Each structure stands twice: as C-alpha cells, then as structure tokens.
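Narrative summary of target 7.
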Amino acid sequence: MNQYLDINPEVAEALAQGKAVVALESTIISHGMPYPQNVETALAVEQIIREQGAVPATIAILNGRLKAGLTKEEIEYLGKQGQAVTKASRRDLAALVARGADGATTVTTTMMIAHMAGIEIFATGGIGGVHRGAETTMDISADLEELAQTGVMVVCAGAKAILDLELTLEYLETHGVPVLGYGTQELPAFYTRTSGLKVDYQMDSPEELASFWKVQRELGLKSGVLVANPIPEEYSMDAGAINAVIDLAVAEAAEKGIHGKETTPFLLAKVKEITGGQSLDANIQLVFNNAKVAAQTAVAYCKL
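Modeled conformation, tokenized:
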C-alpha cells in the first residue's frame, strides 16, 4: 500500500471481503456548493450508495494524507472550509502531501487515490474535458488524461455542459477510452439528457456495465471507462436555455481573464446565478442518480 495512503476501516474491510465500494470526489463538497448544503448532499450521496448495498469512499487529502473514505466529521470539516481548501489535481498531489496540507480531489485525483486503494468504480457529477476555445487556450482538463491511463470506471452525467463536448469525445477516442451510454446512444450534456453526439456503446443494466468492466480489466487494458448516465428526465433543463446561459458565462470568464483550474468553478457559479439556482438543483439530482447506478454496478461486479 502507498505509504501516504489511509484507507477508512469500513472501506478496508469491504475491500478485503470483496464487497462493493464506490469512490466519491470531494471537490463537489469544497467548491461545488455552499455550506451546509454541500455536507448534506455529500452525506445523502453516501446514504444512496449504502441503500444499494455498497460502501461509499469519499476521497480527499487531509493533513498531507491521502484519504480513501472520510468520516462524517471530516466531510463536515471540508464543507466548512469550502474554497479555502486547495482544488487538487495531479500536479498538486506531491506538494500537498509534502506540506501536510489539505486538498479536495477532482475527478483526476479521486481516480488516482481510488486506484491506489483498489477501488474500481467511482461516481461523480460530470467530468472535465476540452474547454470551449481550447484551440487557442490549450485548456484541457487533466481528467481526460487520467481516464486514458488509470483503470477506474467513472459514472457521470457526461462532461460538464460548459465544455466543448465534441472535442472532448474526440480526445477520449484518441486515447482509447470507451464511452458507454447508460440506457442511451447519445452523450448526455450534464444538465440535459442529450447532446446530439453518439457514445461508443449503449449499456442497459448495471450487470452489462459490470461485465464490460470485468472484460476490460481481464484484457489488461490500462485505461478507465466512462459511463455517461443521463440526468433523470424530470430534472433535465431546456438545452437551448442552458446553452444560452453557458455562452454568457463563458464570455464573462474571457473578459475577466479567468483560466486554468479556476475556470470550471467560476462558470458553474455563474450558471447557478443566472438560472436562479435551478442548475445547482439539477446538479445535485444527477449526482444522486450517478451514485445509485455506480453502486448497483459495483454490487453486480462483485458477483462476477
């Protein structure tokens, strides 16, 4: 085991007994929404995973230790600290550990720490990807490179709608990352169920997803797998309206010179502001939905 890694006793016991475990990121707690809604949401997601028969493992960096599985007190701490906690991507990991600092994990670092701990399935909201205008800014999320090299199945509602979804799919194809649509042939666009873009394969049950992942691992393929699970229909937002809002947010970010890791939190906050909080409500519901599918898949995988 990695010398810097602490696995929560409940998670360690589940892994040792071959039980289902689902990893969860912590950036959504620190940077995704205000306190106490962030803590309430994080605990609700963990409860959903338990109800499906799996063990949740929220991941973070605390006092320089890589944590696979947080206590309620640790989740509360992250929620209260909020954006004072570093949003930690791959390049930040060594510095935070060396300094004994705290970090909230993105998709990238959650995948890394989950993989170190032996957790193979991870539920999140949406992945990062190729940002709009990346042909000039070169702003491409490290999440895509991590999917190309780290063997974790990531269940999400597609890439965040603030991104260039077509270029994001092209990048994943180039790096050999399978994109699976859960009950759909189209890539969901985070707040909405469709984007007009095709996924690689449609999967219609947790058992199908589990079987695919088992074969992927047994073939020795090193990449992760992206499962695109559409937001529930009753919470899906109007595509035209949300895209108009995103265009406004992207233009404002450009005017203010916002770039790099600050881009996504700014854009999501701006979209929330313009939509009067409707986008945040949708975000919470899609995370709940992804946690349920990931847990069901993890349970099915353990039976194979």
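Residues 278-302 form the longest helix (25 residues).
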